[in-house]
Fold:
Amino acid sequence: MKYCRKSDENMRDAAVRLCLEEEQRRKNDPDETHERSIIIVGSKKVGKTTMIYRFLEKEETPKPTIATDYSFGRKAGKSLIKNIVHVWEVGHLTSSLVSAAMTGSSLTHSPHHLTILMMMDLSLPEILWSSFEEALSVVRNAMKMAYDDNMIQELKTRRLNDRGKTLEKEVDPFPIKLCIVGGKYDKFKDFDPSRKELVGKTLRAVAHILGAGLYYHSSKDKTVARKTKDLLSHCGFGTQLSGGKCIDFEKPLAVPAGADSFSSIDLQFPQARPSAVLDAIKQIYIARVPQVSRSDDAISEDPSNDPNFNEPIIDRLRAQREEEIGILLHNMLEGRTPQIPIPDPS
Structure:
């Protein structure tokens, strides 16, 4: 019996030692981490918040994201330490907000373990390209605000090395891992086949040039939504992607980064440097789908009128302040000395 107890103690000690060694190895190895980040940007009202809530298994009703929303999730890994994913959703697309999310992510782990998800609205082809251009420009500027030139070059070199000799000369991988998600596939799937093919080829081409993955998504299709959850788990926890590749335009596209080619996409454009190729793809797309003004979309709704953001005390103070301003302006127009009422402290 003593021998058995001694053996049990040795096994327990060995298990603890191995766990500590594994933890130390991961800390010392820049390629290993227990924490990753996902920053989600893109079109308004395309289902970004709902997608995040389902991934993190939140049960509450999603609310509109006015500026930036932060969430996190945990998942048990092989070691005793749990893996953590930080999820940043940027509701108002500005470089400063995206840069803040990038900087926040850098506090916990290397930018090598950051993924940007750009979510586009498939149901609105007439603003699809302008939405993509805006999102890409904002993310580029945010990256320059968050990281110095040396870090950006290091990220770029790493992405190039990851692709190796399979890189086509027109491909210029974005320094940060990038994934394009086409939302509202439930509405898009009933479009004319020629329109679906054009949109699909265009998104495949821009994703391939940027070294990004491309996936269609719908919160109303359980099969597609489950695949999106797998994608987010891959980005956030490093799990294996399931489901393989799909380039059939009559089905929801699923193209992992590096799994496509220009010959397969078959979108005719002249061979040139990546920036020129992007412009050539743009001209092909907008010639068939002219882009419309998004002035109505750019006007943000007043959250104070949204019942989801009711705050009785703040609303009452706001109403008092608006009344004060109204009296002040009225008195100024009448040429009288303004008499501003004192708010009721209760």
In short: The mean pLDDT is 81. The radius of gyration is 25 Å. The first strand starts at residue 35 and ends at 42.
